[in-house]
Design a protein that fits this description.
Blueprint lengths: L2 H16 L4 E5 L4 E4 L1 H7 L3 H4 L4 H4 L9 H8 L3 E9 L5 E12 L5 E10 L27 H16 L3 E4 L6 H10 L8 E5 L5 H9 L15 H4 L4 E5 L6 H13 L1 E3 L6 E3 L3 E6 L3 H6 L5 H7 L2 E4 L9 H12 L10 E2 L1 H8 L6 H14 L6 E2 L6 H4 L26 H19 L3 H8 L3 H10 L10
Helix pairs in contact: 1-17, 6-7, 10-12, 13-15
Length: 467
């Protein structure tokens, strides 16, 4: 390994270890020299077996043309928002958005490549709640005692058995994907794939090739590759954030819904599939069609069955039940020490507005368990400002500095400069997630004083209310 690359890894590996995203680094021979635990978890491949081995030995289905890391290494290509799909060691389809850069030494030679990924599809047990409650998992996987939610579950089970297309509406964080999984599990397609496509996560230029597949030569670098429509054949395709579905793709999707036929990008050959489509949006059907985000004829095809999930503030009786469920689910944070929530802490939870709904409640419970240092009772809830702000939209981001433009052409930056840019970007991302500076420092595995030095070094200003 190049000595400059080794030195840089010795400095930055602790920061990479603390990142919640997959991070990997290869050397000039295409061997992994860094592979964090988040990569190991998503790829289902032990980090100790990956480091020191060629990337293509670990993923034999890939080649040098389809790997963004190898393209960066061999040709100096830079990627921002590049989509990549592969099958991990357990046979699960992994879909990611990559930011990938070549790494140069002081002489300007490429000595490796680094990649930070964002996973687009999560296992069911990582969703808002997989039914984990104090007395065991719920049969349908949704924790609720609210009458409206119980009625929705019954409707979902009936629609699931009917096998029709369904549109799920609800605010962000209410559990739309969990309801979609329930629809799939209750259908005759339950043993077939459940494929998730987040319509907001893909660049519009890549959307059609990812969804419908591509023919070799359809565009620069295009390979013969099946899309998610084919992957979901015989099963269910879940279109999350339908209101972000690009307009050009809507017509092709409409034909799939009408007669089950489509063509890969760059091909005239038609393919026949049999699949069910479930879609979710955080807007109403009327809002989507009035604003021109969705074709009315596509809406009519998708909206055979419609489910509207109530916001958490509309079912306050579920807050204690969900809080206890999340306490049980994340009890390992305290080694199982914390067994209950203090009455005052529960009142604090019930007083919040929860604009981020169930997902926000889970995040707050995790954070509160992290900061619960002693005792077997959770005494204090570490809420977000947004959750307690009586006026929606008054919360202020942790940092007013903008992230650097990662799409700029490579101007021959040194390895130190590129890693410095990465450090600044990662710190900005953590500051957006956590207002508490001590938590950011903990995530980076560095003292708070070191964090403050790095913020000053990178000219990052934080909100005056940051703790």
């Amino acid at each position: 390994m190049d000595t400059e690359l080794a030195s840089a890894l010795a400095i930055f590996s602790h920061l990479f270890d603390a990142m919640p995203q997959p991070v990997a680094v290869i050397d000039s021979d295409g061997n992994y020299v860094y592979y964090n635990q988040e990569s190991a978890k998503i790829d289902a491949y032990p980090a100790e077996l990956a480091v020191g081995h060629p990337l293509l030995d670990i993923y034999p289905a890939m080649d040098a043309q389809s790997s963004t890391l190898l393209q960066a290494l061999h040709y100096g290509k830079r990627y921002t928002g590049a989509f990549q799909a592969f099958v991990n060691a357990q046979g699960r389809l992994v879909q990611q958005i990559h930011t990938t850069l070549p790494l140069h030494n002081r002489r300007g030679s490429i000595v490796g490549a680094v990649e930070v990924a964002r996973d687009l599809k999560h296992p069911a047990d990582e969703e808002i709640d997989a039914g984990a409650g104090p007395d065991g998992p719920a049969a349908h996987g949704i924790v609720s005692q609210d009458d409206a939610m119980q009625a929705l579950i019954r409707q979902a089970e009936a629609l699931g058995k009917a096998g029709v297309n369904v549109l799920i509406c609800g605010e962000t964080g209410t559990g739309k994907e969990l309801v979609a999984r329930l629809l799939h599990q209750r259908s005759q397609r339950a043993a077939a794939p459940f494929v998730v496509l987040n319509c907001a996560a893909l660049p519009e230029s890549l959307f059609e090739s990812i969804m419908f597949g591509s023919a070799r030569g359809a565009f620069t670098g295009a390979q013969e590759r099946q899309g998610l429509i084919e992957t979901a054949d015989s099963g269910t395709l879940f279109l999350d954030e339908l209101n972000s579905l690009p307009w050009p793709a809507q017509g092709k999707l409409l034909r799939v819904l009408q007669d089950g036929r489509f063509s890969r990008v760059g091909s005239n050959k038609e393919t026949q599939v049999s699949l069910r489509v479930i879609a979710a949006a955080n807007e109403t059907p009327q809002q989507m069609t009035t604003s021109g985000k969705l074709r009315p004829d596509l809406l009519y095809r998708l909206n055979v069955g419609q489910l509207s999930i109530p916001a958490l503030r509309e079912r306050p009786g579920d807050i204690p039940l969900l809080a206890e469920a999340f306490l049980h689910k994340h009890r390992a944070i305290t080694g199982g020490r914390v067994k209950r929530i203090a009455p005052a802490a529960m009142r604090q939870l019930q007083a919040c507005r929860w604009p981020g709904n169930v997902r926000m409640l889970e995040n707050v419970m995790q954070r509160s368990l992290i900061f619960c240092e002693t005792g077997d009772e959770l005494q204090r809830i570490w809420t977000d400002q947004e959750a307690t702000d009586p006026q929606p939209g008054h919360s202020t981001p942790a940092s007013t500095a903008a992230a650097p433009d990662t799409q700029e052409e490579d101007g021959g930056l040194s390895l130190a400069d590129m890693l410095s840019t990465y450090e600044r970007t990662l710190l900005l991302g953590l500051l957006k997630e956590h207002v508490n500076l001590s938590e950011v420092a903990r995530r980076c595995a560095i003292p708070r004083a070191t964090l403050q030095y790095k913020l000053k070094k990178h000219n990052i200003t934080v909100h005056r209310n940051a703790r």
